[in-house]
Amino acid sequence: MNILGRSITKNGILLGVFAVVTTGVIAGTYLSTRGLIQDNIRHAEESALLELFPKSSHDNSMLDDAISASDSELLGLRESKKLYRASMNGEFVGAILPATARDGYTGDIDMIVGITEDGTISGVRVLSHRETPGLGDQVDYKKSHWVDGFLGKSLSNPEESKWAVKKDKGVFDQFTGATITPRAVTNAVHKALQYYDANKAQIINAVAANTSEQQVNTDAGTQP
Questions:
Q1: What is the pTM of this model?
Q2: Tens digits of residue pLDDT in 197-218
Q3: How many CA atoms lie within 13 A of 91 on its CB side?
Q4: Sequence-separated (6 or more) residues with CB below 8 Å from residue 199
Q5: Where are the domains of the chain?
Q6: Per DSSP, what are the bridge partners of residue 85?
């Protein structure tokens, strides 16, 4: 074997060893941090849920007490998402519903809506959106607390005709220079209340049965 051949062979072996070592390091790093990453994700998810149902209002782990919802008519979901339940001493306290406003100014607005057992809103949080900075992004709790305007509201408070922004003769504020975004969120929250009202028995029964990952009826307004 000539000098060039030996050099190529040597370099090939070195590259192979380097690749094996690098792969081992990456794999080891992933395995050692995977648990921490999952814990951080779980903590972030739990923190979002606790904003709608604080620890003082329930004694179960909402993350571990979830069912699947895939309603596209009232919840506006494009895929199945988790619906979380809160309970105290085994008694149903409320639920956190996933919802999507498909008619945002620049696209979907994904949110969660907390609803107590009696159908009253305990809180709303927008999880993701692409609304205009300085205008529509005020639905984000980090930008403003506009969504707190839904606290304590229900299907009967206000009456159905008033479930709209003030520009549409409703009771909810819109933003200066932006109406489409608050209108979309208001409509989505109202529909989430309608979904809860139509499926309340199923949600409560699922909690009583303590069966996770059950499928809530996806046909709005129907019961099994």
A1: 0.76
A2: 999 999 998 744 444 444 554 4
A3: 6
A4: 216, 217, 220, 223
A5: 1-50, 54-209
A6: 95
